[in-house]
Design the sequence.
């Protein structure tokens, strides 16, 4: 059986180049930074799962939404197998479910929907414009956990109890050029699991340790994930040791790429 | 195969949730037949029954805290819906389930839901609006016949449709029958009422179409609130484009306790109401 060992730094394009084991059954490679962190970054698994779903969809249908649950910790040392179920191919929508599997157990499950391009009424969430440029922002301190992308913290920054700087607003871009529209959407997914909406000035509490529980994204315009994008998040509610936040991803020119929500578990 | 006599029949909400267990993890539900003979199922009924089916397979002391679902095909009122539950995981404090709602061998709706033990932790919430006309002074929701288990009232400001109907993004809602003091049933009831209205029917989005079909629906539960007493369903637009619209919302009890937050993406359709 394949084993990965650190340091191993495939590009995001290589991460998304899934091996087709059989119809609707895929296997991915893992990035494995040399930082004693044996668990998979959730954004990598979510991005690969969306890729697997998209590979089974008729041409001209593009990801418009996905909902995933993180069920078990994934391990960087072992490849993840993605099993796609074709729930429906309608006239303009295709629906897929994907189980991401390690050791015979589902570590992540995804439902995703693909739609043909249509025109319709537009309602946009405008991007904030009072932002420090990416070149002037300092690197995200946990960037080594998701090495395929570059992340910069937009001020105002807050300090965790351990002295790490955090912000709910982050400039992000994938380090290498990406090949196609599905890959750009998968790259937005990859980058959308960075930081949290609870890292900002709205909340007293900064989760130093937290686990992603669920993650949803809704895509609007195709934007390039290999150029700077703004990931801007805000808290929605917290209670019962869980926190829900939402966020938006815009291209640097202000085009809305996607909205997201995540619920996380606050770990003592 | 069971078919329903298309005579208007209103099973109580607890009867809707009283699913028949066909086998382990396999259930069948009754449908409500509304007075207007609408042949298709109300999505909130299917979502509520699916959450109920998932919850029936979960260890005691674990309560629904989130669900994510897709509406895949139109459901028919004339046939019962089968709910097939898959047990994705039972961990130390979480249980995860997937439910397929099936008619004629096809999945009409699929849901992932998660259940958690009660824990304490940091608190954050947004306050409920307080400048609201009370339910007794609000007029009934125009489409209330489509979801007869619930009573819905429109909170002003109202939007007038070309056909002369009123709409609002903010509604008072309550289940008509008293519900048992059971957190799963109360969670299912919030799910039932959460598919009413839309975040795009307010004055801020007058250019938006009114006719729409639900595509996906997600809920995150916070404090247990009683759905058989007036709750405020308050919704707002998030984004729209590509013939789709995404909105968010919250459900509070009348005393301001946050019961759940929700999001829904819908497909805009041609049509007048």
Sequence:
């Amino acid at each position: 059986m394949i084993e990965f060992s650190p340091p191993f730094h495939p590009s995001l394009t290589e991460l998304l180049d899934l091996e087709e084991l059989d119809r609707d059954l895929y296997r991915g490679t893992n990035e494995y930074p040399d930082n004693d962190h044996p668990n998979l970054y959730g954004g990598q698994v979510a991005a690969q799962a969306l890729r697997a779903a998209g590979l089974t969809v008729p041409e001209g249908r593009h990801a418009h939404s996905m909902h995933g649950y993180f069920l078990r910790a994934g391990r960087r040392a072992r490849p993840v197998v993605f099993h796609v179920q074709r729930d429906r191919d309608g006239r303009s929508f295709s629906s897929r479910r994907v189980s991401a599997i390690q050791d015979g157990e589902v570590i992540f499950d995804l439902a995703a929907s693909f739609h043909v391009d249509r025109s319709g009424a537009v309602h946009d969430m405008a991007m904030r414009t009072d932002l420090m440029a990416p070149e002037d922002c300092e690197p995200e301190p946990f960037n080594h956990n998701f090495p395929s992308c570059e992340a910069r913290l937009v001020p105002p920054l807050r300090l965790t109890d351990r002295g790490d700087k955090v912000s709910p607003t982050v400039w992000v871009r994938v380090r290498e050029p990406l090949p196609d529209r599905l890959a750009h959407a998968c790259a937005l997914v990859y980058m959308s699991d960075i930081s949290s909406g609870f890292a900002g000035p709205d909340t007293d509490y900064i989760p130093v340790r937290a686990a992603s529980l669920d993650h949803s994204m809704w895509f609007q315009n195709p934007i390039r994930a290999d150029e700077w994008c703004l990931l801007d998040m805000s808290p929605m509610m917290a209670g019962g040791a869980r926190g829900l936040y939402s966020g938006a991803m815009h291209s640097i020119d202000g085009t809305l790429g996607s909205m997201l929500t995540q619920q996380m578990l606050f770990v003592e | 195969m069971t078919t329903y006599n298309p005579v208007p029949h209103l099973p109580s909400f607890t009867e809707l949730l009283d699913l028949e267990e066909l086998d382990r993890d396999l259930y069948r539900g009754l449908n409500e037949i509304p007075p207007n003979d609408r042949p298709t199922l109300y999505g909130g009924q299917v979502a509520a029954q699916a959450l109920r089916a998932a919850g029936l397979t979960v260890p005691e002391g674990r309560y629904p805290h989130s669900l994510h679902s897709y509406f895949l095909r139109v459901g028919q009122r004339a046939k019962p819906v089968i709910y097939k539950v898959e047990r994705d995981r039972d961990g130390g404090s979480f249980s995860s389930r997937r439910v397929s709602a099936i008619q004629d061998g096809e999945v009409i709706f699929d849901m992932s839901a998660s259940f958690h033990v009660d824990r304490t932790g940091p608190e954050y919430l947004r306050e409920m609006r307080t400048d609201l006309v009370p339910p007794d002074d609000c007029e009934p929701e125009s489409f209330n016949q489509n979801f007869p288990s619930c009573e819905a009232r429109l909170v002003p400001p109202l939007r007038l449709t070309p056909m002369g109907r009123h709409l609002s993004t903010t509604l008072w809602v309550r289940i008509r029958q008293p519900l048992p003091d059971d957190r799963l049933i109360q969670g299912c009831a919030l799910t039932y009422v959460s598919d009413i209205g839309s975040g795009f029917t307010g004055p801020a989005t007058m250019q938006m179409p009114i006719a729409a079909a639900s595509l996906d629906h997600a809920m995150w539960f916070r404090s247990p609130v009683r759905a058989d007493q007036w709750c405020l369903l308050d919704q707002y637009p998030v984004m729209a484009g590509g013939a789709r619209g995404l909105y968010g919302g919250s459900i509070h009890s009348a005393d301001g306790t946050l019961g759940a937050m929700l999001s829904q993406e819908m497909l805009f359709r041609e049509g007048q109401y």
Observations:
- The mean pLDDT of chain B is 93.
